[in-house]
Amino acid sequence: MRPMLALLSYSLYKNDVEKIVTYAVAVEAFHNFTLMHDDIMDKAPLRRGKATVHEKWNTNTAILSGDVMLVRVYDFFLSLDGDKLKQVLPLFNQCAAAVCEGQQWDMDFETKSKVTEKQYIEMIRLKTAVLLGFSLELGALLANASEKDRKALRDFGVNIGIGFQLKDDLLDVYADQKKFGKQVGGDIIANKKTFLLIKALEKAKGKDRAELQQWMEMKKFNKKKKVAAVTLIYDKLGIKKIAEAKINDYFNRGFASLGQLSVGEKSNVLIRFAKELVERQK
Fold it and tell me: Residue 81's pLDDT is what?
């Protein structure tokens, strides 16, 4: 998705998209570096339907493989000409630091007794959304787009990035395992303070709240039973509809940013791409 956004952004202004494939690949290499390290921290068994690197080999191999991916990102960018390199590297470094900060927030949330919706949105903005914004800005920058268009594309990316992560939270609970590619209910099993859990803790009262707290505090449990029980509480509280409304809100903010571009109907390709993200089932 991220390299595709870079290519689509570039294509709004120029037709020779093959010229920036190397830099689109750099974005994907960075993303996969973060995933490899995230999977270690989250103790995730699956990624894209297959065993994670630390599960198939070991943690040390996964750490070092991720590190090499990050090194390769800089190798890719070093092929830019001097002026473009001076523009791209600071933006990339700012983005990369934000992604790591977002991951740290995510880890910190595991030990916090309470996380607000505002805190959670900021965490996913840093961890997930800024990289989508950077991908789009990168394509525009390499195509010599105006500063105004670059900002509009970056804002579009950040907003759909937040919507994308909220959709991921939703799919973690409600997706078809065969389509999803990751362990359905993994966030529930790990007590991850996703948007769904935060809203459930806000809304739950009486018996539902007591049961939710009990499952969160339980050290030994049957994973399938926990996922089923917590999902039932979400259903009672209407959490799925609340999450869907929030997802649509952020995607609509993104579409509004596209309306500020100078390229007219050419931006329809990004609108179609974003709509596919809204409707995705995996």
Answer: 92
